[in-house]
User: What shape does this take?
Amino acid sequence: MKKGIEHGPLIWKILNEIRESSRFKNSKQFIQHGKTSVYMHSVSVAYMSCYIAEKYNLSVDYYSLITGALLHDYFLYDWHDKEDGHKRPHGFYHPSAALANAERDFEINSRTKNIIKRHMFPLTPIPPVCLEGWVVCIADKICSTKETIKRH
Assistant: This one.
């Protein structure tokens, strides 16, 4: 089975909604890991999250799962640029920045907020409280590792 293929149409529906009504497209200009843009990383995390949920037959809210996965890194700055003025270290700070941007640009539910705020566990000390948060947390680690290794 390909990554998240069963929910591919829903991923694209939500992605188009997000892209058309926000600054999400701007994330194409920022590199996340290796040579992968924040935009492509977020799409990959959405697919990987759905793949994990499908593979293990998890009872998740797919709309929240996908929305949270797409917006988990919605921080909208180049974290590699030390002169940019964003708070450091990025790994600890960016979930709060992503959540602030998401809350400003969208109406998101508490599950989606938890996904965004807690996706960096255990780097950030408070774990996700919902299953969707755990799935995105794991999917993010898998995608980040692949993107970082692929660079080399």
In short: Helices lie at 8-20, 38-55, 62-71, 90-105, 110-118, 131-151.
